[in-house]
Design brief:
Layout: H1 3-7, H2 15-26, H3 35-39, E1 41-43, E2 66-73, E3 100-106, E4 113-118, E5 123-126, E6 130-133, H4 136-154, E7 160-165, H5 166-175, E8 179-183, E9 187-189, E10 194-196, E11 199-203, H6 205-213, H7 222-244, H8 249-262, E12 263-266, H9 271-280, E13 289-292, E14 296-302, E15 305-310, H10 315-323, H11 327-338
Parallel strand pairs: 1-12, 2-7, 4-13
Antiparallel strand pairs: 2-3, 3-4, 5-6, 7-12, 8-11, 9-10, 14-15
């Protein structure tokens, strides 16, 4: 498989982090010895080193809410030992673009979580590099530049960073015994050379990866792929939550182990901080997680590139709601247009 195709093995960036935090909160007892927290890889230098005066300030009304930038990529999958895929180098200049970018917002009371996908073709200003598609920020400057770009574009203060590799995504799916999803319409993915027929599928890790990667053959292209990614994450969380509610420590152990080995987080999250965060999420159920796509503007051609703009009248309200921890009110007012629907392509 050539390098171009390897770069396109992009997965759900929020998958392991959000799922892991919820599950680890439910299974907080397992964290007594920091065993699983200690297995989570730390990314050195992931957060920006720019002066705090040049970054957005979290306002008082944001309280103790937290914002993560989450990415999915397959750079670590080239290691000979696939079981250690998450331990490889996260980023090398120009080596990969993160085609999946999400902002995870955890409310101050930890009773609500919101996953906001930023389309990879969104045209933004990238500090020190002019303007380009947002996924170029990771290619040119790794996690710090991506965070700076998101902060500058949205005005949101980002607290942490997390990443997951594609083999980790498959392992998590297999750890819960597969996930069941319904596909409403037939399609053909010319890139993966795969036909999808209408029906209900119980997907293992490999099938799930093909599902969330598809954009060719879908009427909305990359935007439909975003909906599929969020749809799968929603289904996976529901399946996993159902499993950990049972008195099966071995199933929980397998899931926690798969999560810990798939996830990488910034090195500012110590074992105790990660454990405390997980425990604070014990009251967060799958019905308390809302999946959002930012209000879209227009598809444009810039310097010969097909790019996307966001709605200049509506998107700022979303960013402000995230930054001030008032997303519940935003969803109540605008959610009928931008919240993930029950059925997706």
């Amino acid at each position: 498989m050539n390098r171009h195709r390897r770069r396109r093995r992009i997965l759900i960036s929020a998958l392991a982090v959000l799922l892991g935090l919820v599950l680890l909160g439910v299974g907080g007892l397992w964290w007594g010895t920091n065993h699983y927290a200690g297995q989570v890889q730390r990314i050195s230098g992931a957060l920006p080193t720019t002066p705090s005066s040049s970054r957005p300030v979290k306002p008082p009304e944001a309280g103790k809410s937290l914002n993560f930038v989450l990415v999915g990529l397959d750079a670590r999958s080239d290691l000979p030992t696939t079981g250690d895929a998450a331990k490889g180098p996260l980023w090398a200049y120009g080596a990969q673009r993160s085609d999946t970018i999400m902002v995870l917002h955890l409310s101050s009371d930890r009773k609500q979580a919101y996953v906001v996908s930023i389309p990879r073709d969104t045209w933004v200003a990238i500090p020190g590099h002019g303007s380009a598609k947002i996924n170029a920020a990771f290619s040119w400057g790794g996690p710090p530049l991506l965070i700076e770009t998101v902060e500058q574009y949205t005005g949101i203060h980002i607290d942490h960073f997390a990443a997951i590799d594609w083999s980790g995504f498959k392992s998590l799916t297999d750890a819960v015994g597969g996930v069941t999803l319904t596909i409403p319409d037939a399609s053909y993915d010319s890139e993966q050379q795969r036909h999808w027929t209408p029906g209900t599928y119980t997907m293992d890790g490999a099938t799930a990866l093909a599902y969330v990667r598809q954009r060719y053959g879908l009427p909305g292209g990359d935007l439909d792929r975003i909906a599929r990614q969020q749809n799968f994450l929603r289904a996976l969380m529901t399946k996993a939550a159902g499993q950990v509610s049972l008195t099966d420590p071995f199933a929980l152990s397998r899931l926690l182990d798969a999560t810990a080995h798939a996830v990488s987080v910034d090195d500012q999250l110590s074992n105790s901080e990660l454990r405390d965060l997980a425990l604070s999420l014990r009251g967060l159920g799958t019905g308390s997680v809302t999946f959002v796509r930012p209000p879209l503007g227009q598809f444009v051609t810039i310097d010969g590139q097909s790019a996307l703009t966001l709605d200049p009248n509506r998107a700022p309200a979303l960013w402000k709601a995230i930054g001030t921890d008032r997303l519940a009110a935003w969803v109540s007012q605008y959610g009928n247009r931008d919240v993930l629907p029950t059925s997706v392509p």
